[in-house]
Amino acid sequence: MSTTLQNRGLADLGPGAWKAVLFGFVLAGAALMLERPGLSDHGLSDHLAIAGLLTADSFGSAIERDASTTPDKNSAEPFGMDTEPVLAGTLPEKWHRVKSDINKDRETVAQCRASQSCPPPAQKLIDLSLEGAGRSGRAQVGLINRAVDLAIKPASDERQWGIPDRWSDPFETILSERGDCEDYAILKYTALLEAGFPKESLRIVVWKNRLPNEDHAVLAVRVDDQWLILDNRTLTLVRDIDVKRAIPEFVLDEQGVRRLVSNDRMRKLPS
Predict the structure, then answer these.
(1) Is residue 112 part of a domain?
(2) Residue 120 and residue 37: Cα distance in Å, rounded?
(3) How many Å apart are CA 213 and CA 127, to the nearest integer?
C-alpha cells in the first residue's frame, strides 16, 4: 500500500502570487502559506480511489495539528478524532472479506487448542500470541509486535502476487512469510485477539505518510488509556499523539470501516 503524492512547489504559483511577494506584509503571509505542502493532488492506491473516500478538505487541515491541538489521551479513537461509517466501496469490501478469513483462521486455532492436531500456520499463530505470556499491557504488546515483525519479510503485493493490492489473511501471511504493511497489521490484529485483547481495543489504521508520500497501514492498540501504534517499519511502540508526518484517514475494526474526521467537523454535522 504505497502510492506517491504529488507535492505543490514554487513552480505552481501563479503570476499574481509572484507579484505579491514584492510587498512586505504580503510576503510574510505568502511565506507561511508555502511552508505546508499541498494536499489536493493525492495519488491514492486503487482501493481508496475507487471508493471515493478521501478528500483533503474533509480532514487534512484538522489532522496536521500543532502542540495546542494534542489529542485527548483518553479518546475512544486513535488521534483523538471522531469517526463516521463508510458503508460502500472497495475498502469496506476488502475488510469484510479479511474479517471473514480471520474468523475462519481463529476457528481453526480454537480447534487446535482443544485437540492435539494442529496445522502449522495455526500453531504459528498460537506461538505468536504466546510471545507475551506472563506479561501484560505494553510489555505484552511489545513482545508480540516484535515477534510478528521478525516472522515476516517485507514484500510488495506487486512483487509477491503480481497485482497492485492484495490483503492476505493471517494463515496466508504466515505460510508465505512475506507481506506488506496491511498484512503485518492484520496478523498483529489477530495475534493480539488470540492473546486475549478485546476487540474494542484494536484498530487497523490507514494513514497518509508525508515522508515518504504514500498510503500506509498500521495497528493501533489501546493499553492503559493510551493508543499505541504498531508499525512494521519500526520495533518501537509509539503513542498516537507522537506520530509525525502522517494524516490518519480510516480505522478498520469489528464495526467495519470508519473514516476519521476532525471533532469540529462532526460537531457541525446535523444530528
Answers:
(1) yes
(2) 48
(3) 35
Number of H helices, E strands in the chain: 11, 9
Concatenated DSSP letters of 156-201: -HHHHHSSS--PPPHHHHHHHTEE-HHHHHHHHHHHHHHTT--GGG
Cα distances from 71 to residues 80, 125, 204, in angstroms, run 4, 34, 18
The CATH number covering residue 153 comes to 3.10.620.30
pLDDT along the chain (271 residues), means of 10: 40 42 36 32 38 34 37 75 96 97 97 91 97 94 98 96 95 97 98 97 95 90 96 94 93 97 60 41
CA–CA dist 14, 8 (Å, integer):
12
The structure's pTM equals: 0.74
Instruction: Return the pLDDT at 69.
Output: 41
What is the three-class DSSP state of 86?
A: strand
Q: pLDDT at position 6, please?
A: 33
pLDDT at 22: 33
Q: How many independent structural domains does the chain possess?
A: 1
**Is residue 20 in some structural domain?**
no
Element (H, E) at 151: helix 137-151
3-state helix, strand, coil in the chain (%, to 5): 45, 20, 35
Question: What would you measure as the largest C-alpha separation in the chain, in angstroms?
Answer: 79
* Domain membership of residue 205 as a residue range: 39-268
CA distances from 215 to 12, 47, 136 (A): 24, 11, 31
Instruction: Please report whether residue 247 resides in a domain.
Output: yes
